[in-house]
Amino acid sequence: MSKQGGKGAAGKGKKPAKAGGDDKREDALQAVIIADYFQDRFRPFTLDKPRCLLPLVNVPVIEYTLEFLASNGVQEVFIYCGTHSEDIEQYIHESTRWSPNSIISPFSSLEFIRVSDATSVGDFLRDLDKRSLISGDFILVHGDLVANIQLDAVLAKHRARREANRDACMTMLLRSVGLEPHRAAKARGITPVFVIDDTDGRCLQYDEIHPLMKDRRLILDPSLFKHESFEVRSNLIDCGIDICTPDVLALWSESFDYELPRKNFLHGVLKDWELNGKLIYTEIFEDGYAARASNLMMYDCISKDILERWVLPFAPDSNLMHDQSYRKVKNNSYVESGVLVERGSKVLQSAIGKDTSIRAGSLISGSVVGRRCQIGKDVKIKDSYIFEDVVIEDGAVIIHSILAGGVKVGANAHIPEGSLISYNVEIDRDIKLPSKPPARISAKTDDGEPVETDASLVGPGGKGATYSVTVHDSDSDSEDEGDGDPAQLQNNLIYSLEGLNVSTLSVSTLASDDDYDSDEDEEHAGYLHAGDGQRERLSSFTSDDASKPDAFHGDAVNGLVDALRGDDNADFDSAKLEFMGLRLSNNASDSSMRRAIAVAFTKRAAEMLNPEHGGLEPSKAAERVLRGKNGAVKFIKDVGVGGDDVKQQAEFALALQKGLLNIKGLESGRAGTLLAALLQQLYSLDVLEEEGILAWWADKRAAEGETMTTVKEKCKVLVDWLEEADEEDSDEDDGDEDSD
User: Fold this and answer.
1) What is the arithmetic mean of pLDDT over 398-423?
2) Which has the closest alpha carbon to 583: 556, 554, 546, 558?
3) What is the pLDDT of residue 102?
């Protein structure tokens, strides 16, 4: 364990030095992990455990961070601990992989550093500068980082810049938000804005835009215009990975008022560049995954991304911990050994820890359940995170909440969205917790003493009381965490997916004779199937009125229609770039993009039916509008549909149907014929699959009102043909099985 002494103290664990080790120390790649965040965002959970040891899909968060560093060849690691430093050190020392004394540790050394009076990240880094432990380039990360990217190329470019100019002191890794961003792209309240020289990647200015700011304009420094060209980027994910030289630590030491890495340090160094002369660069990567579990929203998002295999090799069945035994089962779920799932219960796109039992009639969907939990009969758990040793009795309902270890939920209790139930809390039977505001319940005070139970909240047989959080300056000033108020962050656990444009995945309910998928009932009938690794962009026209004018919709539709009216076989890339630029500048939702694309293509196809535009038959018009421009089909598939998921395809087909209905002068029968032609073309082009069209056909919204029904019925021939083809394929498969 750590030794104590003076202001700070360091606890060291090193393997025996090899011959010539001192000569090579300067070449060793070092990393610094900040394992204290000086925030209350995960309270009351962090009264018992530090954030970096909280389970993220049943793996302590710091495991992901250490694996990322190990995979990138880091040799020496320094962990800065604050609160719960003994817990972190004990966890590492007891680890068979990370212990400094372990023969299988990938690190040549791992040291713990304590700073007793630190109040910010800045205090940690100024202390590190005084210790003279850093001998060369080092990677600075937080202990809540989840990433699978490789740094070889970035490190090489960083070192080359350093060789060319000794003032190049830092490289920030930023993730580009592409057409298919992971949830982390949209889960933040604060938008970081980077001004970047697009010739060499140098960062010239940094600012932040808060959603509650009245004036969201960015004031550019006049000196920027001395550069030949630069970009203003607000579509980048800052995952908190910095490659630094020792000069960075010196800059921290020179400014004792710097507390935050971005809002204070980066902003200040760039602003005073003419005085300090230091250069900071960016590397923007398109592939791979990197995000921080820095608040409840991000914890939720990253958990879902891991379950859906967006963070490979980090998936439950990768068994990151040496004692894990996860295997993938049906319905995109994962279970460890010793899990008991009785018939009549369902586990859908979830992870279930070892020795957990789930009794008959229960439904667990989109959730993570820890080890040794007892789930009773007819329990419903949806989009929630259940830690280890939790007992949930018969008939209880838990929706989009977090239950920490040792929690007990009585029979028929109801835990509504956004509830945070900390360690060893007990909720009595038949209790319904409040939803506005969501409950935040703890069994202990900030001092670690047992609370006086509030029977009106948890019931006469319960244990715990409401936990109130005092907002500290470090919370309200944070540049990368969203809103400062922890209560607001709790509310954000139940944020509107559509409002934030967050990708998610429908839960599968495919029939099976397996314990993990029993018979459907009416209560669970609302889920749609999506294949492994697919995403669904939640959107519908229930909140997006097709006739509602807005700046993005009008400009986007007009731009696309103009491009479609251009010369045949012309390239569609410029139209795509213009469209995506409009999307970013207007912060348009996925449903808005889908609607604009559907309206534009249906509008142009309908034009082609008129004599002044060629007087084509519907089948020819559909073929011309889709195949006439290079790249148009790919644009529809990638942006309009958004992927291969059945639900997304059904939504786009519905968007086409509604788009045709809103075209003036196009009677419903002819609109239906054109819709059938468009769907047939999209099917033949592999944009829409058979399942997607049939899902649209089965959607009740496609037959809302007389005109919608008329348009839909014109597609019956196509649908019948698809269904017959499906039956023929099934018959052939049965015949093959019989012959076998």
Assistant:
1) 94
2) 556
3) 86
